[in-house]
Specification:
The protein has 7 helices and 16 strands. It is an alpha/beta fold. The longest helix has 43 residues. The radius of gyration is 25 Å and the shape is globular.
């Protein structure tokens, strides 16, 4: 009788714990799969960016957003030439600008009339690109801009129907053209686009992409803002080298993409045929090799001209690159990484409080969404603390504490449930980006009590998220 009762209790406990166990297993499987995809991407080493769109016909990267589709007329377009040029340089893949910031779509879209199908050309460029690159043994990726000045998807004007158009266009791109290795997204959460991840909800878009193509890597070109050793709103860290973005040598190895054009600009310009392109030796020795050694995949932009062909000087440079460099396969194995942060930061600009601050570096600097400012504890405080006050109960399941340099080594994370402070974490963590994921809780306040540190503690960003899991 006693055995049966004990057995029943254990059975009940197992049933109650099963959802938690399965959820943990699912999260681990998901992270492992993403880590594998990140490694495979880095191992591709070198690819071709293809900026080809309405700007090609304007001698400017940012054309008039009301430019007529009649201007787009590449009479000799040959995507096979692009693919063979990539092969000649021993590239592994290509990535095409399906829609740039001025909103012109170069595929057969049902979402808008502002597309190649209403131009004199009237052919789906994306289809020609993916067919040609696959036929030449190359993988395919696509570029897509959230900022869209033609359709007025820009700051202070975004409506629900704009978000639906973005989802419709991404659904077309990820269902009509077979396997897409990665989607490079631009014009989002950048100082020049000023469209936040709340204006166009990142988590919604990210989950849509993963639902349509689970193995499609999402790369948002936001590397300038976020810390180099944290995966925020991207599966791969990105650096636009022409804008001065560089990997820091003092952060841990991350799966990374860096990009530069072979010419002086991203889209074709009238002087491209006569101006020297980037030297093959420098492409190999100053870009591909050192970047690959740092687990960084390098994508070189080669812009087709108005006829839809790559200029002779660029073709010649790519052939020389192929003579000097070969893809040697796997790069250094990456350490396992957590899934990226994709939810909205509910602590951003929320009321905050802290122990005595040092001079002007008060508590508000720790949740201002600026990674270059910090709350600084006064050196005379022996037990520093920092707190976010939501003013009402909110649900959350993730906290990130980011320091401009690793300093805090021991601390507690707690939340106020209306009656008492409840503990989330207590222990040691010397990482610069301190990421904590836990079962969802509800509280009106959350705080960190700092117990171990070398120098007077400072926090650049204290972030709280309610992730969908």
């Amino acid at each position: 009788m006693r055995y049966t009762k004990v057995k029943s209790i254990f059975t009940l406990l197992f049933v109650l714990m099963l959802p938690v166990v399965l959820r943990a297993q699912t999260a681990t499987t998901k992270a492992n799969n993403l880590n594998q995809l990140q490694q495979q991407f880095v191992d591709l080493r070198f690819g071709m960016f293809i900026h080809f769109n309405m700007p090609t016909y304007w001698n400017a990267d940012w054309p008039d957003p009301e430019a007529s589709p009649a201007l787009f007329n590449p009479k000799k377009l040959n995507a096979d030439q692009w693919a063979k040029a990539a092969k000649s340089a021993n590239m592994s893949y290509g990535c095409l600008t399906t829609k740039h910031h001025s909103g012109f779509c170069i595929w057969d879209t049902k979402s808008t009339d502002y597309s190649v199908m209403n131009s004199p050309y009237k052919k789906d460029v994306v289809k020609q690109f993916v067919d040609a690159f696959r036929a030449n043994g190359l993988k395919v990726m696509l570029y897509y801009s959230i900022l869209d000045t033609h359709h007025k998807i820009r700051p202070h004007q975004i409506e629900p129907e704009d978000i639906e158009m973005i989802k419709t266009q991404l659904t077309e791109l990820l269902t009509k053209y077979g396997k897409i290795e990665a989607l490079i997204i631009d014009g989002w959460d950048a100082p020049w686009s000023r469209i936040s991840y709340d204006d166009v909800p990142f988590e919604d878009i990210y989950n849509l992409i993963k639902k349509l193509q689970p193995d499609c890597l999402v790369m948002d070109l936001n590397g300038a803002k976020y810390p180099g050793d944290g995966l925020y709103y991207t599966d791969i860290k990105t650096y636009e080298m022409g804008a001065g973005q560089r990997m820091s040598k003092d952060v841990k190895r991350m799966p990374t993409l860096a990009c530069l054009p072979i010419n002086s600009a991203w889209f074709w310009k009238e002087d491209f045929p006569t101006v020297p392109v980037r030297e093959p030796q420098k492409i190999v020795n100053e870009l591909i090799k050192p970047l690959n050694e740092a687990s960084c995949n390098f994508i070189l932009n080669v812009a087709p001209n108005r006829d839809g062909l790559i200029d002779d000087n660029a073709l010649a440079s790519l052939k020389e690159v192929g003579k000097l460099w070969k893809n040697e396969g796997a790069t250094t194995k990456l350490s396992p990484l957590e899934d990226p942060i994709i939810a909205s930061n509910i602590a951003k600009n929320a009321p905050s409080n802290s122990s005595w601050s040092d001079d002007m570096n008060i508590m508000d600097f720790a949740n201002d969404d600026d990674y270059h400012s910090s709350w600084q504890s006064n050196p005379r405080v022996k037990e520093p603390w920092f707190e976010i006050d939501f003013k009402k109960d909110k649900s959350f399941n993730t906290i990130v504490v980011f320091e401009s340099k690793a300093n805090i080594s021991k601390y507690k994370l707690q939340y106020w449930d209306g009656a008492a402070w409840k503990q989330i974490f207590s222990g040691d963590n010397s990482e610069r980006v301190k990421l904590h994921r836990f079962d969802r809780v509800w509280g009106s306040k959350v705080r960190i009590q700092i117990e171990g540190y070398k120098d007077a503690p400072s926090i650049a960003e204290f972030q709280v998220f309610d992730e969908r899991r």
